[in-house]
Structures are given as structure tokens and as C-alpha cells.
Write the C-alpha cells for this entry.
Amino acid sequence: MTAPDPLARVMAALADRYPAEDRMVPDLVRMHLLLDLLGSPQLAYPSIHLTGTNGKTSTARMVDALLQAAGLRPGRYTSPHLQSVTERITTDGVAIGEERLAEVFDELAPYVQMVDERSEDRMTFFEVLTAMAFAAFADAPVDVAVLEVGLGGRWDATNVVRAQTCVVLPVGMDHAALLGPTLEDIAAEKAGIISEGATVLLAQQPPEAAAVLLRQCAEVGATIAREGLEFGVVDRRTGVGGQMIDLQGLGGRYDEVFLPLHGPHQAANAAAALAAVEAFLGGGHEPLDVDLVREGFARVASPGRLEVARTSPTVLLDAAHNPEGMRATVTAVTEAFSFTSLVAVVACLDDKDVEGMLEALEPAVASVVVTQNGSPRRLPVDDLQALAVDVFGEDRVLAEDALDDALDTAVAKAEAEAAYGGAGVLVTGSVVTVGEARTLLGRR
């Protein structure tokens, strides 16, 4: 008899846990109980903790790369994944293997069952996976964990580490049903990761969010470094395959740093990542070796973030899933690529501000092919088509029931509309959509 696939077995067990990973149970009781039973693996190493609405995964990858260049062995925990849950847990830049993931799950399973039996609610998908990451990092062992908040901050399962280095990326409107209806509410949830005595790297924020975050820092005695004051982007020039940036860090200035990612938002993410590593390694009082910084940024990759998945025509994959993210994507595409005709393939989840995303996308594309992804939370293609027609007009909207058909239609339309070259296709609207597109296009 063929042995069951270890990853499929783990995913089936995790998928059985309600609420799903996109839901939030507002307490950390189960996480603390499980981690106490495991001997508190999350305290076996220091952590760098990241929250915000957009840019967390890319920034976490940059922090990871800089730490590796500095000779440390980081563990990185990010979410959601594009194609495989193994992407979420990496050690020294390498994703956890499927068999190792299953081993960690089996090691934790008896303790998870004990917590389930003692609690009113069972542990969630995300809680169990987060505990698995903590345990895997302790076993590795790692020198430092780079942790991306899954949702919000205050009640997120990662918020059991009391990190002394925190990064708060730009706060915007997303997950309002869970985090609150205003920017102030959402910022208050994200401010929950800021603990006593921490150093907080604060990206540029809307005024309403900034006031909440600064108040939390003052209340707990955190040290604040702000983008545009203590750190930031001094200059940037677009280039082939990315951009050349000059950065002001906490400890000094770093010029002629190549970042193989596109857009001003990624340059800002790089500034936050650099400041976080400076703060972690020495409080930011002395500059890092500029060659170390250049080496770290040169090795950065962020799949699904304006990723070129194929050429002739160029097919870009970008996981923008809210209006702020889509505006950043449009700016980056316009700056970095010279398309004479760009066709978008869009599939979204039903709990997002889809109309806001479409309005942000509309000026940059000639037409849009709407479709749906495989998520249980997907927005049906008919509903998305109705929204797209309101924004683009009927003559600029096509619809396909399946993503693979939508890709074929978009490629054909882009080539037809750009007979002399310069055609492009942008696949966007959801992390799920981009992950499925990567698989269809043979990306790993």
C-alpha cells in the first residue's frame, strides 16, 4: 500500500479546524497553553515582529536576507502562502520540507489535543501552524525569528513573543469586519504587538493611524524610529530587473543598493527592513557594512509581487488584494514597464473592497478579464463582472469561468491589441489567484 502523502495528511488535519485561517478568535489563551506544554519554544530565540496592511511578506523576506548576509541563521514565518503551506516556514531561506512539516505536526498533535479538551474552542488552523513554526525554529535552531502577523496584531497567534524589534508597515482599510470599521480601530489592533521597551520601526502612516501607534509607543515606553525622519529612501532609480536605491538607515547612509523588486513601495519596504536589522543587531547606533547590505538586498526575491512569470507577452503576477495595494501595483507597473497594451486578469475574494481595487486598476489597463479562483471565499465571476462593467464599461470587460481560460483570453487579447509588441498581462486581485496562476504557468 502506498504511504499517504505527508503534506496532504497535514493539510487535511489543519483544514478540519474551525475557524479557518482567515477568521480570528480574540484571545491568546489556547496559544499560551499549548506553548507552555511545549516548553515555550517561542522564547528560545529573539524575534523581529512585523504588522501592517500591505508589504509584510516582502519586508520579512528582506529582513531575512539581510540577516543571512550578516551571518545569522533566521527562521521566517509568513502568511498566506502562494502554492504550498511549506512556504510559510523557512530556515536560512529554505522552506521546510514536507516530511519535516509532518514530523513537527505529529510531535505537536497530542499537545494540541490536550488544549482542545481543556478549551471551549478548538485551536484554529493558524494557531496550530504558528505553534509548529515556533517549534521548528527551536529545533533547527535559529538565531532569530522573523514573524509576520497573520491578521491584525493584538490577538494574532504570533503575538506571544514580546519582540523587542517591531515593524509597523502602512496601515490601511482591510479586514474591517474583524478589526474595526475605522483606521483608528485597525491601527489599535496592529499596535497590540508593541510591547514594553521595544524598538518600533514605523513606516509612513495616515494621520489617524499614526496617532494611535505613537500613543501606544508612549504608553509602553517603546523607542520609535519613523520613516522620513530617522530612516527612509533618499533616492531611487529604476533599472533592469529592479531599482537602485540610496537609503538612510538608523546608523548611516547606504548608497547604490540594488533591489531586484519594482516600485516605490518596495523601496520603502527596504528602508524599513534595513532599519529593523540595524536596530536588532546593535540598536542602530553604528552603520552596517555597506557591502553586507548590498549583498543582502541583491538576494531578495518576493514571488507574486510584480513577478515576471513569462515573456512574449510579458505576464506579471501581483498579489494586490486591497485598494492601497492595487494603487502601489499600478504605480510600479507604470514606472517599470513600457507596455503599449496591458490586459488584467482579476479574481478576488468576496470580503474585499473589490470596487476600490478595480477603480485603482482602471487607468492602467486597456481591458480586464474577470474570473474566479478556487477559494471557498471567492467572489463569483458573475458578481465580479457586474462590478467591473460599472468601473470599466461593458466594452472593456471579458469574463471566463476558469482562471486558465482567463489567462489564455488575456494573452490573446494583449497580443491583438499590441500588434507591434509591447503587450502585457497582469494577473492580480488575490494571493490565491496569483498562487493558482503560478502553478498554471509552471512556476515553483
Remarks:
- The domain at 6-298 is CATH 3.40.1190.10 (UDP-N-acetylmuramoyl-L-alanine:D-glutamate ligase).
